[in-house]
């Protein structure tokens, strides 16, 4: 599921800032290469036992990743259900309580990145 109304798409910030802010909110930078990085936040559905991930995709607009002053632009925000052995299913409907938790976390992230 693509989350279009997060208010984060197009936001530009430097690597040091997004790493610090996202980590403080529980996000982990899992995937990265020289020109893009992905930040994931895990949400557990206690009722079903399923895990869902809120994923923020970024792309470097200036500099190279791993340099603190590199500028990253948030491209897309996704949410998916974890699948075995690894991966995300973006087509499965997201339970409303999980989606609500995700939108709350996105609001926190947006506010913290804008500060």
UniProtKB/TrEMBL annotation:
Pfam families reported in the protein's UniProt record: YugN (PF08868)
UniProt xrefs under Gene3D superfamilies: YugN-like
InterPro entries: Uncharacterised_YugN-like (IPR014967), YugN-like_sf (IPR036491)
Name this polypeptide is given: YugN-like family protein
């Amino acid at each position: 599921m693509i989350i279009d109304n997060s208010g984060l798409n197009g936001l530009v910030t430097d690597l040091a800032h997004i790493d610090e802010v996202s980590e403080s909110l529980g996000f982990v930078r899992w995937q990265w290469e020289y020109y893009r990085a992905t930040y994931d936040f895990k949400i557990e559905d206690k009722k079903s036992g399923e895990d869902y991930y809120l994923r923020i995709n970024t792309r470097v607009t200036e500099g190279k990743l791993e340099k603190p002053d590199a500028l990253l632009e948030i491209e897309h925000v996704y949410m998916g259900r974890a699948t075995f052995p690894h991966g995300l299913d973006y087509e499965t409907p997201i339970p409303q309580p999980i989606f609500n938790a995700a939108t709350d976390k996105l609001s926190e992230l947006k506010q913290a990145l804008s500060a």
